């Protein structure tokens, strides 16, 4: 194929993927307007960001979608060092949560809206060090997401 055809092919693929995503978004909005519950993607239900406070202090902040909550017992944080061979636990402090009777886990500590968790790393991070962020949550209407585990580089 020549370069012009390859470029055209790539453009067609990109527009097709965009159109499929828009169609799925429109379907979800339509179902929600009809009163049917449709699970959001994990990234839409539980978006978060990691902030550096100082060399060993970080903060993870979630801005949860309305009607979604995170479980206090599901949070776990680890620092990965030495080419993924050393996993060091990270100390963290949970904010005040809400005691809730959950249909899946019984009595739990739940977090709604904005959730900020302070982290204290076990060591000053090196360039290749990563953090593992583990969490799990549900929607109030009964959809429970599987446990999540994300890996991020600690130093930008």
Tell me what you see in this structure.
The chain is α+β, with helices and mostly antiparallel strands and about 160 residues long. It folds into 2 domains: about 1-40; about 40-155, Immunoglobulin-like (Sandwich), CATH 2.60.40.1250. About 20% of the residues lie in helices and about 40% in strands. It has 2 helices and 12 strands, in the order ααββββββββββββ. The chain has helices spanning about 5-35, 40-45, and strands at about 50, 55-65, 70, 75-80, 85-90, 90-95, 100, 105-110, 115-120, 130-135, 135-140, 150-155. The protein has a 4-stranded antiparallel beta sheet with strand order 1-2-9-6, with no helix packed on it. Strands 7-8-3-11 form a 4-stranded antiparallel beta sheet, with no helix packed on it. The longest helix has about 30 residues, at about 5-35. The protein is elongated, with a radius of gyration of 20 Å. Mean pLDDT is about 85; it is low at about 5-15 and about 20-35.
Radius of gyration: 20 Å
Instruction: Estimate the mean pLDDT confidence.
Output: 83
Note the run of SSEs as H and E.
Answer: HHEEEEEEEEEEEE
CATH class of the largest domain: Mainly Beta
Oligomer kind:
single chain
Topology (elements, then pairings):
Elements: H1 3-33, H2 42-45, E1 48-52, E2 57-63, E3 68-71, E4 76-81, E5 86-89, E6 91-93, E7 98-102, E8 106-111, E9 114-120, E10 130-135, E11 137-139, E12 148-153
Antiparallel strand pairs: 1-2, 2-9, 3-8, 3-11, 4-5, 4-10, 6-9, 7-8, 10-12
């Amino acid at each position: 194929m020549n370069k012009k055809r390859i470029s055209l092919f790539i453009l067609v693929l990109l527009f097709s993927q965009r159109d499929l995503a828009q169609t799925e978004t429109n379907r979800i909005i339509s179902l929600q307007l009809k009163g049917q519950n449709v699970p959001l993607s994990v990234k839409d239900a539980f978006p978060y960001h990691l902030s550096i406070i100082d060399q060993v202090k970080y903060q993870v902040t979630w801005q949860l979608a309305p009607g979604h909550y995170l479980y206090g017992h599901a949070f776990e944080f680890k620092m990965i060092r030495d080419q993924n061979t050393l996993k060091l636990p990270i100390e963290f402090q949970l904010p005040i949560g809400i005691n809730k009777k959950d249909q899946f886990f019984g009595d739990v500590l739940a977090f709604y809206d904005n959730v900020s968790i302070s982290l204290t790393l076990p060591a000053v991070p090196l360039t290749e060090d990563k953090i593992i962020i583990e969490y799990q949550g549900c929607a109030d209407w009964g959809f429970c997401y599987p446990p999540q585990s994300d890996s991020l580089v600690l130093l930008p």
